[in-house]
């Protein structure tokens, strides 16, 4: 950790924040001229900017063609897209910074930490078994990393500045798709123990526990993404959509059921913790709208990803040797068979978040 004295570090931090706010033209207008010190993300591949690069797992994407359109181009960072992912886009919307780095990145500086990081891990879920099956960072381990983060910041800038940072920052939680699409639908373990209603109960209980623990650590402004229309992802169409590759009915029903439970439990937590701002972020209907009305949002291809055939390639199956990868990802909603393109993430993030920003304050 940087050896600067605490007063100098705090001065450096506020100076850097002022520069970031001035330079970041994509920031939304926040109520009451609020400024956000940091953004933190927890969850799965949707908000993982590269934590999986530094762990032993097959769930990686730090190779081409991932990152093909990132920054100046051809920079596979470990983000599961051709470019930015929602954690980056959201950090910019709140006026903090344009890229939200991975907490495990060994090259982070103190300033990177002070303005927020992502603890997310591609392949993780609310169900502890989800991360265990693919050897990624579980939700409880992500929470432990956040506790470690708090200790580091206290050592650098002191308890008062740390407390302010933790309480006034924005927290984004995004997971659940891997629980349903992978752990429940594609493996028999949970299906022998639970039907869809009871499995989504398990997920909701885990989500509630996590949010209460996060609150206990000082978080107050927490946005939680509902699950998208995962049955309409290209991979789910291929696996469970029949010969016509229709949207998977079972996956979408499970997503809708979980989302209703997630929204209700967040209402209950807002009642329990009146000083908190827990904001449910509906991602299901916005993605469905994009899929049903692609031209309205500037897209042409909805049923397959850009990478390879677009029907099944994701992660290590989407690689430099994947034939027929599209030349223009901006025509596609999906980059691979599971993850949207940067353009789609930008559109989706605006549809999901822009009208809800005021609810964080």
From TrEMBL:
Pfam families: Lipase_GDSL
Domain of life from the UniProt record: Eukaryota
UniProt keyword list: Signal
GO cellular component term of the entry, any: extracellular region
Entry-linked InterPro entries: GDSL (IPR001087), GDSL_lipolytic_enzyme (IPR050592), SGNH_hydro_sf (IPR036514), SGNH_plant_lipase-like (IPR035669)
GO MF, one example: hydrolase activity, acting on ester bonds
Signal sequence coordinates: 1-27
Record-stated family: Belongs to the 'GDSL' lipolytic enzyme family.
UniProt protein name: GDSL esterase/lipase EXL3-like
Lineage: Eukaryota, Viridiplantae, Streptophyta, Embryophyta, Tracheophyta
């Amino acid at each position: 950790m940087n050896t600067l004295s605490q007063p100098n570090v705090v001065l450096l931090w506020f100076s850097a924040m002022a520069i970031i706010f001035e330079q970041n033209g994509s920031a939304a207008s926040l109520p009451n001229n609020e400024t956000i010190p940091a953004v933190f993300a927890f969850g799965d591949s949707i908000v993982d900017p590269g934590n999986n690069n530094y762990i032993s797992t097959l769930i990686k994407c730090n190779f081409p063609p991932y990152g093909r359109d990132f920054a100046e181009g051809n920079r596979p960072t470990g983000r599961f897209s051709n470019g930015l992912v929602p954690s980056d886009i959201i950090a910019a919307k709140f006026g903090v910074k344009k890229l939200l780095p991975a907490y495990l990145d060994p090259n982070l500086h103190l300033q990177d930490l002070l303005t927020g990081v992502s603890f997310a891990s591609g392949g993780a879920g609310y169900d502890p078994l989800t991360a265990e099956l693919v050897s990624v960072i579980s939700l409880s381990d992500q929470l432990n990393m956040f506790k470690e983060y708090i200790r580091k910041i206290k050592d650098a800038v002191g308890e008062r500045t740390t407390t302010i940072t933790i309480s006034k920052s924005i927290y984004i939680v995004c997971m659940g798709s891997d629980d349903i699409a992978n752990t429940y639908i594609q493996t028999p373990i949970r299906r022998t123990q639970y039907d869809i209603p009871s499995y989504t109960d398990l997920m909701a209980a885990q989500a509630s526990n996590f949010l209460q623990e996060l609150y206990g650590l000082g978080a107050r402004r927490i946005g939680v993404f509902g699950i998208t229309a995962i049955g309409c992802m290209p991979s789910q169409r291929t696996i469970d959509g029949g010969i016509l590759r229709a949207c998977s009915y079972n996956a979408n029903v499970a997503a809708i059921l979980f989302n209703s439970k997630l929204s209700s439990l967040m209402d209950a937590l807002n009642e329990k913790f009146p000083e908190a701002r827990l904001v449910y972020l509906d991602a299901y209907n916005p993605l469905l709208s994009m899929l049903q009305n692609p031209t309205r949002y500037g897209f042409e291809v909805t049923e397959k990803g850009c990478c390879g055939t677009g029907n099944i390639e994701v992660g290590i199956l989407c690689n430099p040797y994947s034939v027929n990868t599209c030349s223009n990802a901006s025509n596609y909603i999906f980059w691979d068979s599971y993850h949207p393109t940067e353009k789609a993430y930008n559109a989706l993030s605006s549809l999901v978040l822009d009208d809800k920003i005021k609810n964080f304050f």
